[in-house]
Amino acid sequence: MTQSLVGGLQPPYYTAVFTSIRPDDPEGYAETAAKLNALVEDIPGFLGHEAARTPGGIGITVAYFRDLDGLTAWQHHPDHMAAKRYGREHWYESYRVHIGKVERTYGFDREDRENHEDRQGRQNPEMPHDRDVVDDRD
């Protein structure tokens, strides 16, 4: 599972959100996932991914791509296609894939908060910022 969040991406970019239901630790899954994680990093336009799973059930993986060409290249990668076929036959009870174009992004990191804003809440001019960033302090 992902232990950090993907950040610092400049929109627009694309996401592939893969939601699934499968048992915990099915045979061969971890090895296949590790192989695919290494392969996707070589796809031009791949920006990163995040994943989480509830015990005994629902999993969500979000993959980020600069453009649809990169996302399509991953979709049609032979090893990825083989893993999808195997997963339908052996691992998954069900899954969904949602493809989206990200127009706007913002976030929060506790350790960066003090460096990003002064005490009056103004953005620190030394920190990069985007006009689309929303102040989510409330």
UniProtKB/TrEMBL annotation:
Q: Do you know which InterPro entries this protein is assigned to?
A: ABM_dom, Dimeric_a/b-barrel, Jasmonate_Hydroxylase-like
E.C. number, please?
Answer: 1.14.-.-
Q: Where are the residues of the annotated region Disordered?
A: 106-138
Q: Which domain of life is it from?
A: Bacteria
Provide a Gene Ontology MF annotation, just one: monooxygenase activity
Residues covered by the ABM domain: 16-85
| Top enzyme category | oxidoreductase
* Name by which UniProt lists this protein: Antibiotic biosynthesis monooxygenase family protein
Q: Which organism is it from?
A: Streptomyces roseoviridis
